[in-house]
Amino acid sequence: MSRNGPLAIAFHTFIVAFMLAPIVVVCLVAFTPEGYLSLPVREFSLRWFRAIARYPEFVGAFWTSLWLGALSSALAVLVAVPAALAIARYRFRGRDVLAGLFLSPLMIPHVVLGVAFLRFFTQIGLGGRFAGLLLAHLVIVCPFALRLTLASAAGMDRAIEQAAISLGASDWAVFRRVTLPLIAPGMVSGWALAFIQSFDEVTMTVFVAAPGIETLPVRMFLYIQDNIDPLVTSVSACVIAVTVVALICLDRLYGLDRLLVGQGHRDT
Amino acid sequence: MSVDGRQFISAAAARVTAARAQDGMPFLELHKLTKRFGDQLAVDGLSLVVDKGEFVTLLGPSGCGKTTTLQMIAGFADVTSGDVRLEGRDLLAVKPARRGLGIVFQSYALFPHMTAGANVAFGLEMQGVGRAERDARVREALALVGLAGLAERYPRRMSGGQQQRVALARALVIRPRILLLDEPLSNLDAKLREEMQIELRQIQRTLGTTTILVTHDQAEAMALSDRVVVMNRGRVEQIATPQQAYERPASPFVARFLGRTNELEGRVCLGVVKIASGSWSKPMAPAGDATLVVRPEKIALIPPAPDRLNGIVRMRVFQGNHWLYRIETPAGAVLVVRQNAGAPGPAEGDAVGLSWSSDDMVVRPRSEGPL
Amino acid sequence: MSPTILKRPYLSGTAVAWLLSLPALAIFVAVVMVPLAMTALLSFYDWGQYKGIEPVLVLKNWREVLTDPYFREMFARTFRIAVLVTLFTALLGAPEAYILNRMRSPWRGIFLLVILGPLLISVVARTLGWALLFGGNSGVINRALMNVGLIEAPLPFMFTETGVVVALSHVLLPFMVLAVWAALQRIDVQVENAATSLGAGHLTVLRRIVLPQAMPGVLSGAIIVFALAASAFATPAIIGGRRLKVAATLAYDEFLNTLNWPLGAAVAVLLLLALVVVTLGCNALIERRYAEAFR
């Protein structure tokens, strides 16, 4: 790879600054000792981080987001694995339509999904209930779990399963001893990506969440609508910190562009 | 060979002698095996009888149906019509997991998340063999293929040749009734391939396992097999020993596929074959225009003369233990192969005469239709 | 010897496949297709401030959404913002992806993380950052520029279209970089070298060799960014405020403030239809234009 010239480096620096500036400023302002929005020039204070404890709705929203993310991702993977095996292994009529259906939430604007879920859940009596929210998130994160599991399943040499069969393994033994260990990386990274998507989701959730089952992004969003003060910046800084750690782990284990590739393409 | 390896062989040999006591019935019989993909005929009525302990090769270019045939025997492809009988019993009615066949896949298909030892032990686990016996047999099998001591290594840390041996050990340790090999040596480099061919043959001879090999490499087929099945576009062209197929090819396809061949234009008149200015006596040959087929190694290079087939050496290639000559004659280009005996042969641009024995030449009358 | 089809005569492959897909299929039909159908239906219902939702079929909502100048302006604004965001991200993202591609490791991996990572960081937190940077007098950058004396009044950012475009460009830039990056990965490195060896200068190589091959990536990235920008909610809501509405915030307003669900449903469905048409249409054009070279 040849090196980039000075013009390219300058452009690149601008882009990096553009991408990092908002994130950095949020984290900085979170440490302000003042009672209003300002950059911490003289000292860094944890006052606004401690203040979070006085706002149980933020803490509660955090746990809700955590549970919701973990559960919906786990369920999504559970549902996605058999579907991925079906799509990867068998050629049957309707396969492309099925795959398109499972990946459709990626193409539907979340605001439309939010509207649709609100209407649907209200009609069937799940309005404002955690179960409804769980179902909604399950459907939204399923494409991510499916895509990564599918990549693992499709990338596996089919002859390996045939070898296991020829050595006398029953279907269940083939799945348990051979297939499952080999698609496990896809399942794990699928779960991780699904979790992150669920944790951050705000557009759809703002329609479906009700007081009591609010997620953290929704709580932050509603708070910001009324006023912007350092409290919400410290909450944001916490969220950013957790995400960055998860990001670095994922990149080490899997490679970020490999994880996201396919998210950039609306292909099936 | 190590002690474990010898044990493996003696145990296997004992079984083979016991089995040879039964006779009469063919060991494996393929009867009019056919496979159709839509309106494409991949395998067309293949019939073959294999004796116990035989090494048979399905040989042909890609797309000839050899791999499909193997898949049908293994149970990984549906059969459109036809039978497969193993020791008299219908094999197609048996689930692939119960057929008791050892398979070595082209990509080896080793379980990447298991060590070599675990790979080899897998079949025994599925059979319910106890741990002690399992470990012993795995050790024997790895020793047999020359990988003693590598049981704890993972496939990704092994070379291609080593992986191939693990795949072979895994297939042999379950004492299969038939060993199926799908182009197992095609991913190895030339030198390694030659070594593995010799080892494979030795192992097979010692164990006496009935073996079916699929390959497109005619040299490999001729080196390893008791018999070859030459296939082309789903059909069998010839079933014979390698020597018979080479010396007496049943069709032009077989003649061209096995080794090199020359096809020259000539005429037959009153039992005399005339190619340009050369002539050969072939009393029973039908008169008329004909194509004469002769192998390059059967042709001698002698000084040119008016009553011989003469030509100019256009190119010569040194290939280690022999020289390959390309000689331009009035009857067309002729390939000649001469052993490297140390003395220099004709150089490029020299005029030479070509001679060979009438017995080494096949006459194919042109009226027989397209070749 | 690895057929893609693993068929055995005991249970047909097709039956097994459908059985395996059943859980996902059931969930998706029940939780995606049905709600969408219900929403489409809802858009035809009548609504009144006192009578609430009345399940009769009228075209009133659709007529309003398609002809009322207020709604026209909203959709025009949404479209305008989406187009500008797409342009910005293309102009910034494509070169950046190319520059990233030419870096050596470890820089490449690090900066890929830096550029793509924000995709996974909460959009609310990121938009908050923009509000902090440019928000009125207390915005960090505004204050800095005013202190230095470069400007006298704060740059207008909050509650302006420009602000929404800038913030959305930030949020969606990683998608463009990702799409172009993926396209660049498929380009054989040696092709550039071949062109250079035949005497092409650097700019020519870029223009005649790299750009045409990267174009499918730029175009598919553009489609994604456009769709996401047109349906964006959180960023326009925070930066644009209550007065600068786009399609998504409009639907939110109708649903959760005015409570006119049928009208909100009409807005949402119109947005969905418009995006599906644009996306499928552009995809088809790309397929046709680039099919010969790449598929």
Write the layout of secondary structure elements.
The complex is a heterotrimer of chains A (268), B (371) and C (295).
Chain A: H1 6-29, H2 47-51, H3 56-89, H4 95-103, H5 110-124, H6 130-154, H7 158-166, H8 171-200, H9 205-208, H10 216-226, H11 230-253, H12 256-260
Helix pairs in contact in A: 1-11, 3-6, 3-8, 3-10, 6-8, 7-8
Chain B: H1 3-20, E1 28-37, E2 40-50, E3 55-59, H2 66-74, E4 81-86, E5 89-90, E6 101-104, H3 116-127, H4 131-144, H5 160-172, E7 178-182, H6 190-207, E8 210-215, H7 218-224, E9 227-232, E10 235-240, H8 242-247, H9 252-257, E11 262-269, E12 272-275, E13 278-281, E14 288-294, E15 300-302, E16 309-318, E17 322-329, E18 332-339, E19 351-355, E20 361-365
Parallel strand pairs in B: 3-8, 3-9, 6-7, 7-8
Antiparallel strand pairs in B: 1-2, 1-4, 4-5, 9-10, 11-12, 11-14, 12-13, 14-20, 15-19, 16-17, 16-19, 17-18
Helix pairs in contact in B: 1-4, 3-4, 3-5, 4-5
Chain C: H1 13-42, E1 46-48, E2 52-54, H2 60-67, H3 69-101, H4 107-116, H5 123-134, H6 140-148, H7 161-185, H8 189-197, H9 202-230, H10 234-240, H11 247-258, H12 261-294
Antiparallel strand pairs in C: 1-2
Helix pairs in contact in C: 2-12, 3-7, 3-9, 5-10, 7-9, 7-10, 8-9, 9-12, 11-12
